[in-house]
Prior knowledge:
Elements: E1 3-12, E2 15-25, E3 30-34, H1 41-48, E4 56-61, E5 64-65, H2 70-76, E6 77-80, H3 92-102, H4 110-120, H5 136-147, E7 154-157, H6 166-181, E8 185-190, H7 193-199, E9 202-207, E10 210-216, H8 217-222, E11 229-234, H9 238-247, E12 251-252, E13 261-265, H10 269-281, E14 286-291, H11 296-304
Parallel strand pairs: 3-8, 3-9, 6-7, 7-8
Antiparallel strand pairs: 1-2, 1-4, 4-5, 9-10, 11-13, 11-14, 12-13
The structure holds adenosine-5'-triphosphate.
Amino acid sequence: xxxxxxxxxxxxxxxxxxxxxxxxxxxxxxxxxxxxNGAGKSTAMLILSTLLEQSEGEAFVxxxxxxxxxxxxxxxxxxxxxxxxxxxxxxxxxxxxFYAGAFKIPARKRPALVADLLELVNxxxxxxxxxxxxxxxxxxxxxxxxxxxxxxxxxxxxxPASGLDPRARIELRExxxxxxxxxxxxxxxxxxxxxxxxLCDEIGVIEQGRMIASGPVRDISQRNRSRKQxxxxxxxxxxxxxxxxxxxxFVSQLNEYVEEFRFRFDGTEQQKAGLLHELIAAGVDVVFYxxxxxxxxxxxxxxxxxxxx
Length: 309
Ligand SMILES: Nc1ncnc2c1ncn2[C@@H]1O[C@H](COP(=O)(O)OP(=O)(O)OP(=O)(O)O)[C@@H](O)[C@H]1O
């Protein structure tokens, strides 16, 4: 395991920010930390990044204990915080060169490294622009480049997409996919849930400092199967289809037909096939019949429903 948290708790005075958090991330995986504001995501990420000490438990990055061996951990880890500090009078190149210096990259290697990093995050055209003149999306990409100066194998990205417009989010997502392609292990947090579904191999849902669900995106969605929605699209015969669906004992919560039917189906796969047979045999021109695309937002709301009252 590349990242591991074992029975981690963190208290700020009376406040329990994390309680007995356990999770691990395999080499080369993208793990999404999902939770509402204040859930404890940043706290967990700060502990892994050696910037905050836990109250209890142990955390490991690439096998190194973050509390006992922080220097080794920092060598293999790149951390992107959820805010971007203000840097007056520094260009993008100067900014990255400064951090490359902090990581003791030899001066002669810095120009090529910085050029590569700017290219990776699509900022080559802004090399000489002042950092505080860049858009939020560009600053986020520069911050990501900064976390990569020492070529870490593990990346911890705290809400990298927050405050970005849709285009900037897509750009960022593409870069993160590229980093995954390079074999990096990535822990990323967000409360923009559907976005993580596409990007992440596994997710952990965190609420009030506790991990309430963790695993492959599909497994977590399946736990929610009883809520599964289905979609039916037809070319015609909507009234006939409505009648058949209404009479089917496994169908509930049928909506009015607006471009498609959506309904809940509580039968087996066999019974699902049976319903399709019946629709077609009755003359309904079915163009689509299947499960509604998993909406991570719904899954998240269902899982966290009622937690903490
Ligand atoms: N330095 C601190 N002192 C006291 N309480 C803190 C401190 N930092 C965080 N907290 C509290 O700990 C809890 C967890 O905060 P944390 O920032 O880890 O959550 P988060 O999931 O990252 O939230 P967000 O999405 O808003 O960043 C919150 O209740 C927060 O108010």
